[in-house]
Amino acid sequence: MTNMGKAVSELLDDMALKILMVEPGDLSVVGDLLDLGEQLVTSAEAAKVPVLGRMGNAFRAALEKIIMAELPDSAENYELLGRCIAQMQEALRKGGVADEATLTAFADSLGRIGYAVGVADLAAVSPAAQPSPSVAPPPPVASAAPSPPPAQTPVPDFLQDKDLLSGFIDEAFEHLESIEINVLELEQNPGDQEIINNIFRPFHTIKGVSGFLNLKTINKLAHATENLLDDVRNGKRPMDSDVIDIVLNVGDCLKDMVQNIKEVLERGPECYQETDIATYLTRIRQLQEGTVGPVEEATLPVSEPSASVAAEAPAPFKAPVAPAKPAARAEVVATVEPVEEEETGPRGGADKGGQRKKLGSSIKVDVEKLDALVNAVGELVIMQSLVRQNPLVARLADPKLAKDFSQLSRITSDLQRTAMAMRMVPIRQTFDKMIRLVRDLSKKTGKKVDLIMEGAETEIDRNMVDSIYDPLVHMMRNSVDHGIQTPEERSKFGKPATGTVHLRAYQKGGNMVIEIEDDGEGLNTQKIKQKAMSRGLIQAGESLSDHELNNLIFMPGFSTADKITDVSGRGVGMDVVKKAVEKLRGKVEVHSQPGKGCLFVIRLPLTLAIIDGIIVRVGSERYIIPTIAIQESMRPEAKNYNTVHNRGETLLVRGELIPIIRLYEVFGVESTTYTDPREAIVVVVENEGRKRALMVDELLGKEEVVIKNLGGMQDVSGVAGGTILGDGRVGLILDLAGVIASSAE
Asked: Could you give the CA distance from residue 393 to residue 402 in angstroms, rounded to a whole number?
């Protein structure tokens, strides 16, 4: 696959993951999906895959009609769009040549949405991306994100000081995140005056700074909300579910407005869009006057429909708060005293016993500068190793030189650890977003859910925090929507009415482990087996363990759901989660106990810049096997070597027959020391539940290596990247999934 083809494939994967995030009524995510669709059309045309360009253009046109309210903004339509994405992925897998069945299915999906397109128009030889006049033409790309008429959207004069505006944007996002965290905690402690103050202060700050910068709409909405919260602080009205809902909805609206200001800074004043806040102001006034009713509540643009469970009972889930001390697996639940709130709360808050003393010593650094520093440190480590292993230097028997080299090695190692630590951030910011997600889902589905978070202080590479968010959202949705049963169903099985979802993070070895565990109904293994057999993924006589069968849910398009809901499911399946995790050099698997619950386990490297691996020699080449996948290494005994008819060579290891992979054959190495597995060394590895014995010539040692981009070689099957070794050689980092796939061909 060409580099451009790779870009098209990644765009389709991103679209498949993004469609899972769409909820009816939330056009912000739909806008992101539309941008990806436009990129797909451009990339497909540049890659000379015209059929994908036309399919992408038709997809984009249908999405635009949903945005323009010309077609229903419904879960069913998004499920059909998900199928369209899967059909485009199928066309790409066939080399960009879609057969008539794929095109017919694609056209049928769009037709059911309400956008007519002919199969002949999709399959036309002409590279033109626009459909023929007989087909409803999509609007031009320029109108993808329609702006209100200029007369109605005057751009305020807030661009005079872009530096101040940029600082306000960063601060505003931090304040709004702290508001959401504190509001959800307040739901568990309605009378806590300190938490109410922690919500009031960031609104006050946003109001003041936005007024100074002439951001009138933001200022007006923040000021009205501040007045409402001031009434709560002064005891004029209680902090009930109505106030909590409006504060959360206002926070969402303010985030959208601040995001729009950020786009104006990046792309120009023409991106500015005025937001209608009249509904929010009316709602706030009604709350202050005590005239609020259920009809007005339903008119809020982003509020969720009220659930009787949430209205009558206490909060539908237990929101976690910050732990007193960072701990790898210390449980974080609502019963922990919120004495550390100031650490994640708004700036300018009261200092409680010196808990905020570290805030003044931190500074903000441009991300590009930080990445440049990390890259420079990586190069320094490589050059230090090259110099030390230079034969001329190695022959010098100078005690002072040896001492200086030892000191240099210590300093470079410390520098590397410090630089890498600068990239590490707690995963809390991602975990905290799950609190709001579970709250909204519990209300929407009418279920009672306790969310228990553990290890939110565990640190991970900052480049991975945002990337892991979408997969986590999809799996959390699945746990609440498909895993946790309704209170009535749970009572039938003798379970408490309130379900529990555990979200854990901890370090194990050189890796970060994230677990999502629910006490719901678990996976239906027999149903998965039947679906797999109907799709030809397994044969009737093939023997697979329950664990292997359950992990088939990560196959492309695999789903056993009887119905699609607006909470989860878009016809693209869990494979998009797997692809997103694998992009981060991680792995995901599922463990299930029928009737008792499900456990999803994600394993990720702590950083994307360094990998811990074992260096092996195969012939004249060097390869790095990630230690996360290695189980053991050995020189096998002759009695354990077997050849099985039609199944190749195997090695008996601890009572299990493991297939042997000759690495020199996989990579076409011309010469090798050993050709007999009984004389060579084998490294037993595990990937996605599959064990293999990799045949190598020599183990050269364990080392942390700096990953280097190999450019076009990224498309080589079985190779995840490269590094420069201490002797100046280039070592290839193995992608075990690709190695196993290549050996099976």
From this structure: 10
Q: What is the pTM for the complete model shown?
A: 0.59
Query: How far apart, in whole angstroms, are the C-alpha atoms of residue 481 and residue 253?
Result: 26
Cα–Cα distance measured from residue 514 to residue 428, given in angstroms and rounded to the nearest whole number:
12
Return d(Cα 710, Cα 733) in angstroms, integer: 11
Contact 728, 386 (CB under 8 A): yes
268: left (phi over 0), alpha (psi -120 to 50) or beta: left
- Fill in the amino acid letter for 553: I
Range of the domain at 667: 610-744
Residues 411 and 535 in one domain: no
Taking only the tens place, the pLDDT of each residue in 92-148 is 877 777 778 888 888 888 888 888 888 877 876 433 333 333 334 444 433 334 444
First to last CA, the chain: 17
Whether residue 705 contacts residue 696, with contact meaning beta carbons closer than 8 Å, is answered with no
Residue 471 shares a structural domain with residue 593:
yes
String of b and e for 733-742 (b: at least 16 CB within 10 Å)? bbbbbbbbeb
Q: What angle do CA 107, 482, 255 make, to 5 degrees?
A: 75
* 74-102 residue pLDDT tens: 888 888 888 888 888 888 877 777 778 88
Residue 284 and residue 211 in one domain: yes
Alpha-carbon gap, residue 297 to 630, rounded angstroms? 56
Question: Please, which residues have CB within 8 angstroms of residue 586's CB and are 6 or more apart in sequence?
Answer: 602, 603, 604, 605
